[in-house]
Amino acid sequence: MGQATCDTTAEPSLERLLEHPAIWRGRSVAHTATLSTGCTRLDEALPGGGWPAAGLTEILTARSGLGELRLLVPLLARLGAQPPPRWAVWVSPPFEPYAPALIAAGVPLERQLVVRTAEPAWVIEQSLDSGGAALVLAWLAPGVATSVTMLRRLQLATQRSGAPAFLFRPLTEATRTSPAELRLVFEPHVTGGRVQLLKSRGGEHRPIELHWQEYDYAAS
């Protein structure tokens, strides 16, 4: 009989596989790249210290216009200032972006692209795959058909592009399955807002109270 040999390359290969951002091991905190939220309190509560840099994040609210966009204004300003010039794509926002507040927060208006469409998922995926988007913000209204398959496509698109996407969805979607890397509920609070993580690879799962004055922007 032949003598069995030990493959000394198997372990390093396995370790490299386990380091892939798409792989998650139980009882471990993800070591995926993140982007600072602009708020130390929120960064400390999120796994990795910020928003997933190449992942899908869902922000759920009882209704739109409660201040949830403030969560992303520091990121809009920071990515908007980075070369090379890329777009911040707003897909079907239920309002007109308020230019004076964005300017006051340092968000470059010339890099904002608003798209209104009956097919938001297609626009999100195409924007990410184009390579021209620094990030995508999208509002999925209650009447917009969604599926786990569609959301998984968007999650994969963020990984391919290396850019984050943020979906604003109704609070009624909280109990539905989603492949998004991060899911949280936002509600207004006397000092600013309160965030509750619904799904994350680690992080703080107690309610997080935010104070807008702690953010690194000056928008009112």
CATH domain class name: Alpha Beta
CATH architecture: 3-Layer(aba) Sandwich
Give the H and E element order.
Answer: HEHEEHEHEHEHEEEE
Query: Mean of the pLDDT scores?
Result: 85
How far is the N terminus from the C terminus? 78 Å
CATH H-level superfamily: P-loop containing nucleotide triphosphate hydrolases
When the domains are counted, the total is 1
Lateral arrangement of strands in the main beta sheet: 5-4-6-7-3-8-9-10
- Roughly how many Å is the radius of gyration? 19 Å
Can you give a write-up of this model?
By secondary structure, the protein is α/β, with parallel strands linked by helices. It has a single domain, classed as P-loop containing nucleotide triphosphate hydrolases (Rossmann fold), CATH 3.40.50. The chain has 6 helices and 10 strands. The chain has an 8-stranded mixed beta sheet with strand order 5-4-6-7-3-8-9-10. A two-stranded antiparallel sheet has the order 1-2. Helix 5 runs parallel beside helix 6. The protein is globular and about 35 Å long. The N terminus is likely disordered.
